[in-house]
């Protein structure tokens, strides 16, 4: 049962990569096939406008795949001083405990640290200096 969960988690994690890579591999394999295996009869019936639409669609798919890889896919770095992960694109911290469970849980930020919204784990801000306490002045009464 645990093996099935691991397989499912790994497959889900890499699904987007597979969806992008599979058409690329398939189309590049078709491109290098010998001419006798290519469906030339079908290609001869396609008009130039349909070829143009097909090429434009493939270019749009390539641009979308590159945009996904660059802009949408989150990029995380581990911040040792805090002990948490940081999304470098959006400048948001993520809980290490939840990341270990394959959950991306952005944390609530306060001046003295960060708190996970999911598991309530607290991460202290090492650069935080608490303000000087304001003790009420003693009034001497005679
Ligand atoms: Zn958490």
Describe what is shown at a glance.
The chain is 46% helix and 15% strand. With 142 residues, it is α+β, with helices and mostly antiparallel strands. The longest helix has 25 residues, at 48-72.
> What integer is the average pLDDT?
85
Question: Portion of residues in helices?
Answer: 40-55%
Task: Kindly give the count of domains.
Answer: 2
The oligomeric state of the chains shown is single chain
Distance between the termini: 79 Å
Largest sheet composition:
3 strands, antiparallel
Task: Give the topology.
Blueprint: H1 2-13, H2 15-31, H3 40-45, H4 48-72, E1 76-79, E2 84-87, E3 92-94, H5 96-100, E4 107-110, E5 113-116, E6 122-124
Antiparallel strand pairs: 1-2, 2-3, 4-5, 5-6
The protein binds zinc ion (ZN).
Explain this structure to me?
The protein is α+β, with helices and mostly antiparallel strands and 142 residues long. It has 2 domains: 71 residues, no CATH class; 49 residues, no CATH class. Helix content is 46%, strand content 15%. The chain is built from 5 helices and 6 strands. A 3-stranded antiparallel β-sheet has the order 1-2-3. A 3-stranded antiparallel β-sheet has the order 4-5-6, with no helix packed on it. Bound molecules: zinc ion. Zinc ion (ZN) binds next to helix 5.
Highlighted features:
binds zinc ion; 3-stranded antiparallel β-sheet; 142 residues; 2 domains; single chain; 46% helix; alpha+beta
